[in-house]
Design a protein that fits this description.
alpha/beta, six-stranded mixed sheet, about 30% helix, Nitrilase/N-carbamoyl-D-aminoacid amidohydrolase, globular, about 400 residues, about 20% strand, 14 strands
Length: about 400
Amino acid sequence: MSHDDDTLTTSRRALLAGAGAAGMAGVLGATATPGQAHAQTGHEQISVARNGRYDTVELRQQAINVTAIQSRVRSVDLRNLRSTNRENLEHVLKLIDQAQGSPEEWGGERLWGAKQDLLCLHEFPIQGWQPWSRTELQRIAYELPGPESEAIGERARRHDCYISWGAYVRDPDWPGHILNLSILTGPDGSIVAKQWKGRNALGLFGNFALIGTTVYDVLDRFVEMYGWDEVLPVARTDIGNIALTAVGLEPLLYQCLALKGAELLVMTVTGGSNAQSAIATARANRIYTVGVGNSVTQDNIGFPEATGVRGDGSVIVDPTGRTLAQTANHHEDFASTRIPIADFRETRRFPEIPAAILLPVLQQYEPTFKPNGFMEKLPETYREAAEFVRERMREG
């Protein structure tokens, strides 16, 4: 090897070492203290695990009962929006009561099974999904708080439980945008967390693309308004640290949620949830995972009954990848289990992430689709969104 080659090799090693060190500093920080494991990103603090410790609040009990509610996706009908929305909401409330063993037909008394501490619904349990235009979604989307969140909050108070559910939402801080939110309602009936969908899959759907706004679509403004810690949010509750995501097939995103201290990950991809994804996620990240799918659905506008039904139904999986509970079929059904959350927190061992060798690759990788795609332009329809995707691909 020549002297020049030797110098080049040394320089390259120094560059990579510097990138790794810079990345490690950004991810892990230099001043974290036990119980307050924060990383520095400029002036931002991101709550992330350090040496196996991460931010929590005190647990109210040693173990929790968790149920995945596998329900239909019957879309609201724009021709009769108010009544179909109400019918779907009442159906969801009925399923909540049934999951708690306390249907109103039994007088509201629990006559079957144990009290559930967390009920998990899928991505669009009330509104459903159609290729609606932005103008139509403005009519369909909810405001929070609103009648739907108040009704679910009443059930959470009645049953003293947490309920996770998803919805299209309007927000006055984001005029014109339709937000795809995963919502966590607490036992007092209030909204504990509103977790934005992290990103949509782009370039995979041919002549249509999704028009709901995700974090990635408006990343710069999102960070300016809410901070980096909310980009991948974790709700720290008295039944454990809970992350909700409607993003499918995104292993790095799930891994980062686990590294931020999520102890239970709820995956809620309507029409796309797969039990095997939940099992793989749980095993790879050593985290409890709930994979909530939708059931066979009669009379959903434009779709055959089995649309979105695939894989092995809805599951709850332990950190070794072992299935603890699973729906018996693809009809409306419940999967329930008990999770020893306090023991898990006490004995949890994170997978070791070799950040120093991964960060240089991640920092220099150039994705086809850059963030902030919805900062200047909001497509009106799914077809217009697809053309927008193609434009971005050509620009890339």
